[in-house]
Amino acid sequence: MNLQLTVPNMACSACSETITQAVKAIDSTATIVADPKTKLVTVETQQSKTAVKAAIVAAGYTVAE
Q1: pTM for this structure?
Q2: Could you say which DSSP state residue 1 is in?
Q3: Closest C-alpha among 42, 25, 22 to residue 34
Q4: Does CATH number 1.10.510.10 belong to domain 2-58?
Q5: pLDDT tens, 17-27?
Q6: How far is residue 25's CA from residue 64's CA, in Å, rounded to a whole number?
Q7: Backbone angles phi, psi at 6, to 5 degrees
Q8: Which secondary structure element, helix H or strand E, spans residue 60, and what is its range?
Q9: CA distance 14 to 50
Q10: What one-character-per-residue DSSP string does 19-41 give?
Q11: N- to C-terminal Cα distance for the chain?
């Protein structure tokens, strides 16, 4: 499943790394591209959108629809 999520409070490369690690924790084979400039996170994963969003929120970020 390919997901594209907006994370408004992702501000820097450290934020994108934290988000990447949070998603990798629930799916170690996921491919994640997090761009702080556009606030977009693209995830290729076998997990559900709900699970990916929950992992990002648990890492301290908000996910906009």
Answers
A1: 0.94
A2: -
A3: 42
A4: no
A5: 999 999 999 99
A6: 21
A7: -100, 130
A8: none
A9: 23
A10: HHHHHHHH-TT-EEEEETTTTEE
A11: 17
